[in-house]
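Exercise 7. Predict the joint structure of the components listed below.
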Amino acid sequence: MTQIKDSARHTRVVPGQPDMWAFVLFEALIFTGYFSVYLFNRAQRPDDFLPYQASLDLRIGVLNTVVLLLSSWSIARCVEAARAGDYRKASLKAGLTALFGVVFFVIKASEWVHYTAQGNGVTSNEFFNYYFFLTGIHCLHLLIGFVVLAVVIYQLRSPLRRSQQLIETGATYWHTVDFLWVLIFALLYVVR
Amino acid sequence: MTAATTRSASPPAPPAGRSLRAVGWHLRHNPKRELWVAWWAMVVFYQFFGVIFFIVTRTQPPPNPALDVASRVQWFHDNHDGLLIGFAIIFIVLGMTAPINALIAYSMRRMSVSPAFGYAYLVMYSLSAIPGMLLLCIVLTVGAYRPDRSPELISWLYDFAFLSFVGTMGVFLIGSLVWMTAILIDTNRVLPKWFGYLNLCNALTEVVVSPAWIFDRGVFAWNGLIAWWINMVVFAIYTGAFIVLLKQMIQREDFGTGPLPDLESRRHSDESTASTEAR
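Solution:
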């Protein structure tokens, strides 16, 4: 009976380090603050937002979302393979995740150049102030995600390391990057 | 800056209670006295920081960056006494930042990581305090002491002071990342991993301040909801967290080189939980 209780006490409640979930919660709260400020100002002055929001290309937003969702799928497969002990496949999936991340970044950077060339730069109007801020801070999270993926691949490469907990912690971070993008996509591109 | 110190002679047992004799004993014999002095310096400094910046000088929350030249001169006039008295006190207590940085560096020296982390943090935070705090104090004091100067010069001092103070928060970013990395790779359990990740949150919000250089009105200006208010909330949570965690680190310190033991209260709680479950 004691053994059962002990094992229940040590059963993992969440994948990876619980500490990473504290980070996810805190980041979600900070972004909730950013989104609330955006939505409040948008509701107060729709004329400063809606005409400029119309110039966003929804197709690029959808493409970005699909690419990032594919990266999330890929990192989930990486965790699955690592759990099954297939570390070579797990490394490949982590590399594929990074590749999707690079594709996302290239699309996003070209989108920034495109809008700036159109006259919708960082300081051009209030909607694009928020657009560049939210997509910029998200891309910073993405760049940190590459470091996280490097740690995951480093863990997977040697039998001496291979901490399943660290691999799952890295995957949790990557899913957060995806989760935040889906919210930004919905707010900037879809809600009009 | 050596965390592990050999204590050869064991001091006499401390007197019971909170009498003057007990305080005297702790001042002479408590091996953690320097750590406690550094921790109390941190608590006292942040009290001064809060009262002087938010109440006495009224520099926090920062005033409107879009004020015209005449209003800026008026701002210096209205806050003349507060600026002079408040920053005079800051110049006196500024030295307390040294033991604060030293205590944080000590936490890294107690970890299983290279001493380079502690040294890097110490140098970076010592340098960051110049644009991140000291310049504001000096520049606004100059403005308050020289009200007869040309309004354009006073206006320039106003921009220089607040852009230096708010706009350069990013200089603290690398220090936060150094502390984060040390915590995440440490195996001595000196500070919890969630606090390592909180360092990352703090570093990211320091990046968010940078639009204050571009915008002089709205949410991205130096007094804006995003560039200042949300960041200040995160910074307050971060500061509160490390004050508590460093206190617990000192309580747990055993001057060894291996993992830090748990707090007594937590150990008792774990033991009682285990014994309850065993029944």
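Discussion. The interface with chain B takes residues 2, 5-6, 9, 17-20, 22-23, 26-27, 30, 33-34, 37, 41, 122-123, 126, 129, 133, 137, 140-141, 144 of chain A (CB under 8 Å).
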